[in-house]
Amino acid sequence: MSIPVEAPNEMIRDLGNGRRTLVIMAKAPRPGMVKTRLARRLPVSAVTGLYRCLLDDTITLARSLEGVEVAVMCPETDLEDLERTVGNRVPVVPQMGNGLAPALTSVFAYFGGTGYSRIVAFNSDSPHLPTTVLEASFQLLENCDVVVGPTHDGGYYLVGAKMSHPHLFSTDAMGTANALEALLVKARALGLCVRFTDPFYDIDEAADLSRLAEELQLTPGRAPKTAKWLSEWASAGHANKAF
Question: 168-186 pLDDT, tens per residue?
Answer without folding.
Answer: 987 665 555 688 999 999 9
